[in-house]
Amino acid sequence: xxxxxxxxxxxxxxxxxxxxxxxxxxxxxxxxxxxxxxxxxxxxxxxxxxxxxxxxxxxxxxxxxxxxxxxxxxxxxxxxxxxxxxxxxxxxxxxxxxxxxxxxxxxxxxxxxxxxxxxxxxxxxxxxxxxxxxxxxxxxxxxxxxxxxxxxxxxxxxxxxxxxxxxxxxxxxxxxxxxxxxxxxxxxxxxxxxxxxxxxxxxxxxxxxxxxxxxxxxxxxxxxxxxxxxxxxxxxxxxxxxxxxxxxxxxxxxxxxxxxxxxxxxxxxxxxxxxxxxxxxxxxxxxxxxxxxxxxxxxxxxxxxxxxxxxxxxxxxxxxxxxxxxxxxxxxxxxxxxxxxxxxxxxxxxxxxxxxxxxxxxxxxxxxxxxxxxxxxxxxxxxxxxxxxxxxxxxxxxxxxxxxxxxxxxxxxxxxxxxxxxxxxxxxxxxxxxxxxxxxxxxxxxxxxxxxxxxxxxxxxxxxxxxxxxxxxxxxxxxxxxxxxxxxxxxxxxxxxxxxxxxxxxxxxxxxxxxxxxxxxxxxxxxxxxxxxxxxxxxxxxxxxxxxxx
Length: 550
What we know:
Number of helices: 24
Shape: globular
Structural class: mainly alpha
Strand order of the largest sheet: 3-5-4
Number of strands: 5
Strand content: under 5%
Order of helices and strands: HHHHHHHEEHHHHHHEEEHHHHHHHHHHH
């Protein structure tokens, strides 16, 4: 995929032409012609996505670092041009006719986005991008001092999950020492981000960044009140189950007490790990999706044959994983870091779910029907994690069942931890002047409510409430966490459903993926035959099933 910088001047010129021609359009057909030209512009902006990925492949590469800095600078101005176009679309006298083509969700998302945008925010948004760039560079180059050598931090997982308890205890302390070295910088960066985002909300006359974030996250059909009630249900119904699962794991491990460094291990003989190297994991991924369905078979051949992935850990490579779409090619791309643990398989299922849904929509002519909100997107990914269970022997051999149990237990923990993060962020942005010490104390208190069995004794960094500093989303994507929790509740319903009728559950999932872009998240849930994740009986009945199943 050849790279050529697309300049702001080119984007601005083409947007101005689109705005002029849309204003002059005499009917809905003329409006749609303009919107198709906008799609062509978005395709021509693919170099921005290519740059983002290639910069993440090596944050120290000077060429792509400079290119990314350029896009960080112009990004807010490009977003402002896009918002100007959106404002014309939602106010168009032909809106009713346009909605029949684009679907109502696209219009609703535009309206929500406009509530969170304003040209006056451009300087603050540029400043926010600069802060995030500093964060990425800081964390991507982090190392841990381990057994006399410097080890890239995201390569430490194998030791923190060691079956030998003393090894994982020492590894956890070494990792914490690395985070402690960066603590001052991270706390200062976060303070600047909170201040920046709070000033953005003030410019728009909003009560706090909480309100602004709900517009930017396209919350449709629910708000902070519903999310707060959902978190309360998690505390009432799911946290007691988490206590029980931790107690059973303590018994399995033969320990008298669980410490936080034990939370990463599920079995006395260690966690299941993939049987082979990177190539073996990719071969298993191909076989898994080939067996799952005709659709996934075609999808994975496309992904792997065209090398639409980067999965190996390297110096300077950003940690974590994600799926990116290169619009010019209608091609999804998986970014990951294989560390030799079960994460190798997990991430090809999770990011594979994102990529599969994008691939399903590749031939959609009206690109506005390809938009999605994040809780819907995470349902694609987290549900795929369960639908691929029957093929885990390809990765783990005779320990496939162990992997599935570990995965399900971690899914329960994930709901609690994502709600913990969401409540933490809400309270932080409601009180943006909170000191670093007060933020750490808040995290400590919320941990005791959501994950009460996590004992950090002996680990000063975690004991002092610094665990939030290890979560990229806290810095980069505020208020995304609850989307994971809501999606996990839907994915767990698919897990229950597939054990009763795999074929029916899979067909529902395909419908959910194909309907994304046309329906809101609550509408997608209803159409798929899933229960509303906000309803109390949904979580309580799901917990009853999980308790019985596990």
